[in-house]
């Protein structure tokens, strides 16, 4: 088994977390405004694939509206790889509105990374089937989320949707939790250059897609950052209408999580939680055909937009997109413990921030992809991952560091947010 690092920011060699507070000028009426709440974190690390890397991430809370935020991050490396990311979150049209508007824009240029294309991404493929290429990536979307007048969202919908904690009052969307419908127009692209990237594949040869993602979400958790009870349900339908040079396709996904509170562990842990996630996806248009420019084309997405496993959320010992196909199925189980002993708020660097808790985690994933949606087939010859993680909340954001092992690689990652 090989130990390596993901594209995501990994080992932070120079953890120089320097908070910045920028004071706003006084208004002409001489009434002072609240100071801007801005935090910036420079970081540096080194990996074999990326070389010496350095970057900075910044968060602006209450960015123009009390509930909104703006996050920006950038990274450059000694091997000419670079990434840039910006997200604007939770803007609304008025305090009484049921709409929340967010946007994310990501661009990256990666030099000499491993990729799994065509049969090399199938469930029966080998790690040795990978190829090395350069890649220019882009992912952009704008989200329009409508809070439905059900459960906790019946009154004060924006407050209910963004509240970090809420009561779990029932087990149906109309009696408990926050339900929402989101329309998310998106653009996604991946342009590979290198030997072997044009080999025949079952997927579309398009290097970009434009489409609409429609997402129904029922959030019935008692906490956004560290749930102990309840559930989270996502049903997603993605449609790319196609164009003159690429066929249309559509895909559905179901992502379901449950949480069970196991109680405290005397003198050891304040909290124990068992968390379980099921993810499945299919591309019903997969075998449909059309004639374009005199050739028969299947209504399929390119690999980077297909049903995929591996990465930050599923089969975590494999790199992002290690497995791709028409359909996918994945199970994840986590045992999360919040120790009574919490020294972080007294440690150098950490004591500059609000760090109310940390969490230790054991996790396991099993899953596979296939070129037909057959439940029996999806449960045969499943791939697996297992690992350990440490997570902590910093200024309202969950930071997770984890080490995952599997049959091919071992991957260490540092990222934000719970995986589910």
> Low-confidence parts, pLDDT < 50 over ≥5 residues?
5-32
Strand content range = over 45%
State the helix count. 2
Q: Report, as a whole number of angstroms, the end-to-end distance.
A: 27 Å
The major pleated sheet works out as:
17 strands, mixed
Backbone shape: globular
Radius of gyration, Cα only, in angstroms? Answer: 22 Å
Kindly report the average pLDDT value: 89
Describe the model:
With 420 residues, the protein is mainly beta. Helix content is 2%, strand content 52%. It has 2 helices and 21 strands. The chain has helices at residues 157-162, 375-378, and strands at 2-5, 37-47, 51-61, 69-77, 82-91, 99-115, 131-147, 178-193, 208-221, 230-240, 249-261, 269-282, 289-292, 295-298, 307-309, 323-325, 327-339, 358-370, 383-394, 397-406, 409-416. It is globular, with a radius of gyration of 22 Å. The protein starts with a strand and ends with a strand.
Task: Give a topology summary.
Blueprint: E1 2-5, E2 37-47, E3 51-61, E4 69-77, E5 82-91, E6 99-115, E7 131-147, H1 157-162, E8 178-193, E9 208-221, E10 230-240, E11 249-261, E12 269-282, E13 289-292, E14 295-298, E15 307-309, E16 323-325, E17 327-339, E18 358-370, H2 375-378, E19 383-394, E20 397-406, E21 409-416
Parallel strand pairs: 1-21
Antiparallel strand pairs: 2-3, 3-4, 4-5, 5-6, 6-7, 7-8, 8-9, 9-10, 10-11, 11-12, 12-17, 13-14, 15-16, 17-18, 18-19, 19-20, 20-21
């Amino acid at each position: 088994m090989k130990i390596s690092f993901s594209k995501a920011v990994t080992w932070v060699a120079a953890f120089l977390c320097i908070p910045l507070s920028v004071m706003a000028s006084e208004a002409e009426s001489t009434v002072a405004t609240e100071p801007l709440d801005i935090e910036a974190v420079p970081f540096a690390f080194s990996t074999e694939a990326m070389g010496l890397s350095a970057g900075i991430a910044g968060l602006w809370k209450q960015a123009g509206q009390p509930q909104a935020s703006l996050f920006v991050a950038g990274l450059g490396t000694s091997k000419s790889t670079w990434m840039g990311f910006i997200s604007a979150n939770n803007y609304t049209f008025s305090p009484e509105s049921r709409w929340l508007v967010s946007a994310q824009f990501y661009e990256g240029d990666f030099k000499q990374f491993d990729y799994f294309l065509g049969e090399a991404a199938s469930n029966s493929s080998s790690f040795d089937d990978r190829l090395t290429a350069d890649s220019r990536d882009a992912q952009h979307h704008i989200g329009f989320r409508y809070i439905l007048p059900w459960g906790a969202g019946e009154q004060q919908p924006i407050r209910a949707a963004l509240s970090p904690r809420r009561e779990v009052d029932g087990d149906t969307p109309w009696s408990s939790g926050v339900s929402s419908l989101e329309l998310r127009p998106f653009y996604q692209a991946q342009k590979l250059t290198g030997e072997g990237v044009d080999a025949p594949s079952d997927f579309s040869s398009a290097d970009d897609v434009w489409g609409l993602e429609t997402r129904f979400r029922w959030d019935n958790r008692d906490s956004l950052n560290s749930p102990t009870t309840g559930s989270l349900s996502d049903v997603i339908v993605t449609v790319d209408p196609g164009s003159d040079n690429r066929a249309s396709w559509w895909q559905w996904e179901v992502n379901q999580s449950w949480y069970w509170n196991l109680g405290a562990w005397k003198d050891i842990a304040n909290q124990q939680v068992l968390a379980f996630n099921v993810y499945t996806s299919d591309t019903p248009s997969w075998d449909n055909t059309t004639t374009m420019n005199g050739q028969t084309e299947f209504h399929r997405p390119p690999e980077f937009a297909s049903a995929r496993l591996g990465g930050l959320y599923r089969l975590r010992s494999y790199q992002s997109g290690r497995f791709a196909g028409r359909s996918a199925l994945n199970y994840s189980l986590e045992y999360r413990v919040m120790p009574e002993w919490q020294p972080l708020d007294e440690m150098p660097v950490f004591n500059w921030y609000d760090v109310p808790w940390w969490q230790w985690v054991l996790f396991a994933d099993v899953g596979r992809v296939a070129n037909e949606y057959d439940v029996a087939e999806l449960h045969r010859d499943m791939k697996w991952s297992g690992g350990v993680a440490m997570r902590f909340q910093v200024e309202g954001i969950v930071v997770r560091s984890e080490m995952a092992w599997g049959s091919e690689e071992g991957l260490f990652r540092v990222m934000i947010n719970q995986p589910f």
